[in-house]
Amino acid sequence: MNICITGALGHIGSRLIRNLSIPSLNRVYLVDNFLTQRYASLFDLPSGVNYCFQEMDILSKEMESIIRDCNVLIHLAAVTNAEVSFQNKDLVNKVNRKGLENVAQFCAKYNCSLIFPSTTSVYGVQTGLVDENCKDSDLRPQSPYAESKLYGEKLLQSLSQNNNLKFVTFRLGTIFGYSIGMRFHTAVNKFIWQASMGEGITVWKTALNQKRPYCGLNDCINAINYVIDKQVFDCQIYNIVTVNLTVKDILDVIKEYIPDIRIKFVDSPIMNQLSYNVSNKKSLECGITYHDNLKDSIRETINKLRNVNYSIIKQNL
Ligand SMILES: NC(=O)c1ccc[n+]([C@@H]2O[C@H](COP(=O)([O-])OP(=O)(O)OC[C@H]3O[C@@H](n4cnc5c(N)ncnc54)[C@H](O)[C@@H]3O)[C@@H](O)[C@H]2O)c1
Questions:
Q1: Per the structure, how many domains does the chain have?
Q2: Nearest C-alpha neighbor of 235 from the set 137, 139, 168, 144
Q3: In 10 A of CB 59, how many CB atoms?
Q4: What string of DSSP letters covers 45-83?
Q5: Range of the domain at 65
Q6: What pLDDT, in 10s, does the model give residues 196-232?
Q7: Which atom of ligand 1 is nearest to the CA of 174?
Q8: Is-contact 106 67, C-beta < 8 A?
Q9: Residue 94 CA: which ligand 1 atom is closest?
Q10: What's the predicted TM-score (pTM) here?
């Protein structure tokens, strides 16, 4: 089997390309345009895998020759900072909408199955427990980034009906966990970074006690490997969520290692979301399993940054 991973150097991709567990894997195309400059993600890749790195934009026509040679495309490339997406709507729409259109049409044309990572942020302003069956009218994404992901979900549904595209969509919770290409602009990772640097932890004014869905990086990688291994390309949407947590839950764990954290309450354009839990029942029923643990994962990331600032006392690492 040949596969292609776009956005291969990013937070998820840089771990995934080191942890592929796919029987009869032949060639692995890695595509990234260095938008986020994660050059280090290419260091020390494991031997024994037939990687083929291409510095390429997903909007490029040249994606066609790669996808024609592949059985599966894992489409991780995107502009991913939800908060900043209010200021760079054009780029978000170009990469996340037009870029997906480009690769998805080639996937349909060459019978290449597609894994599309959407986000649990498409649920937007909801309360209580939400799942994949909620009505379309209840999906109210609160940022241009989340809107672009909902657009992507609908695009794939229509390509499957009209052009026989085979795909699976993951609505991923916010990812926590270390990778060599990790980014630090989402909750958990950002809080760890700020605490490790001795900075005040910036928490949205409304968010401290609101529940949100999170996904451990290993659980995300395992889910990707699983759907390829079991060929779960059933044109369905699955929530991929390890745990639902409040910001306070996360900060309590960070405090176990960095006791003197300071909280700075700030405003955010996506602060109008409410407290909600996202169900992972459908993914469990499909055979996806969850093993990540927030505490172990936070400890691992803090440990990676342990010598960055000598005045920060870290306990129990
Ligand atoms: N990390 C999360 O918390 C999270 C949560 C929900 C969904 N997702 C989705 O999962 C996917 C991967 O997320 P991530 O955290 O690894 O993102 P990331 O920002 O760390 O990585 C994205 C990668 O895509 C590359 N890229 C951007 N534009 C490109 C283009 N035009 N052509 C080629 N490459 C391009 C970047 O250089 C980067 O290496 C994204 O689609 C993201 O929206 C992530």
A1: 1
A2: 168
A3: 16
A4: PPTTSEEEEEE--TTSTTHHHHHHT-SEEEE------TT
A5: 3-175+213-240
A6: 999 999 998 888 999 999 999 999 999 999 999 999 9
A7: 3
A8: yes
A9: 31
A10: 0.97
